[in-house]
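Inverse folding, one chain.
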């Protein structure tokens, strides 16, 4: 609707390729967001709730042992995620601008005959490529830290449930089957914790 409401002058001042690249980039970002929000997040939340209820049913202490390491890692997740989203946005914006610039350069290749203009255009393109690469590298680093942190938190959770469950089993307040079920349920937490 936004594009339909723009004046004809907007379209006259911009090449069709640039508008199309922007539109396709926005559509892809929206599709990706919808797929994650509508499908993945509810399924992961349902898994977390189901595992939590099952652990509480087995023994409430085991639920606490599973959740405490995850809660300890929460501040780090809250610090990393906005930065990763910002670098993702910057990388996508840079890629969209780069595609538009390349479209302009390809369309204007017959018009530009001067060597200086070609070198300036090549430098501009290279600078944009470097900017996109840097944003993608930073986002990749933050994603790796986030995955490592979530895997570590899930492993700590699994260890805490295993140790506390073994203590309860040896004390006679937990059966062997309940201990194995609690460990298995805690192992199921790794996926949602890593993906959310």
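Residues assigned per position:
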């Amino acid at each position: 609707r936004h594009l339909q409401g723009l004046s004809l002058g907007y379209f006259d001042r911009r090449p069709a390729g640039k508008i199309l690249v922007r539109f396709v980039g926005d559509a892809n970002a929206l599709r990706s967001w919808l797929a994650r929000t509508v499908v993945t997040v509810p399924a992961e939340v349902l898994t977390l709730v189901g595992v939590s209820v099952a652990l509480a049913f087995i023994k409430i202490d085991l639920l606490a042992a599973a959740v405490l390491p995850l809660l300890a890692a929460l501040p780090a997740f809250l610090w990393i995620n906005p930065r990763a989203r910002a670098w993702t946005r910057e990388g996508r914006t840079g890629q969209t601008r780069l595609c538009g610039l390349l479209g302009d350069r390809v369309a204007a290749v017959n018009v530009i005959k001067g060597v200086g203009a070609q070198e300036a255009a090549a430098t501009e393109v290279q600078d944009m490529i470097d900017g996109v690469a840097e944003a993608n590298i930073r986002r990749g680093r933050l994603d790796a830290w986030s995955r490592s942190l979530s895997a570590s938190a899930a492993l700590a959770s699994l260890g805490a449930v295993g140790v506390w469950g073994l203590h309860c089993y040896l004390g006679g307040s937990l059966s062997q089957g309940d201990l194995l079920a609690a460990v298995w349920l805690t192992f199921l937490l790794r996926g949602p914790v890593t993906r959310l």
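The mean pLDDT is 80. The longest helix spans residues 115-171.
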